[in-house]
Amino acid sequence: MGSSGSLAKRNFNLAMMLFKLGSHDKALETVMKSLEYDPELAEAHALVGAILAAEDDCPSAIAAFDKALSLEPDEPTALEGKKACHDGS
């Protein structure tokens, strides 16, 4: 993993912490920065989906979960989030 990969991971970790603290807007902004560094980071796409689902935007969340799953078919956050969105709608 090069320097952009480590920057992507660092931004992802910060975004995850912000999300857990309930700061959804800041978490989304930070995870999007992570994806600028590494657009193939499946867990970051899954986090985008989780944030959007928490904001009751399941259609957009499902698109993000699908992107994560296209990169990593067993990504647990994406699998759980997609199922929760489908169950809730």
Order of H and E elements: HHHHH
Question: Which radius of gyration do the C-alpha atoms yield?
Answer: 12 Å
Most strands sheet: none
Poorly predicted runs are: none
CATH superfamily caption: Tetratricopeptide repeat domain
Question: Which fold name corresponds to the CATH topology?
Answer: Serine Threonine Protein Phosphatase 5, Tetratricopeptide repeat
Which CATH class applies here?
A: Mainly Alpha
β-strand number: 0
Instruction: Note the total helix count.
Output: 5
State the distance separating the first and last CA atoms: 39 Å
Number of domains: 1
| Quaternary organisation of the protein chains | single chain
Mean pLDDT: 94
Q: Beta-strand level of the residues, as a percent range? A: under 5%
**What would you say the CATH architecture is?**
Alpha Horseshoe
Structural overview:
With 89 residues, the chain is mainly alpha-helical. It has a single domain (3-88), classed as Tetratricopeptide repeat domain (Serine Threonine Protein Phosphatase 5, Tetratricopeptide repeat, Alpha Horseshoe), CATH 1.25.40. Helix content is 81%, strand content 0%. The protein has helices at residues 3-20, 24-37, 42-54, 58-71, 76-88. The radius of gyration is 12 Å and the shape is globular.
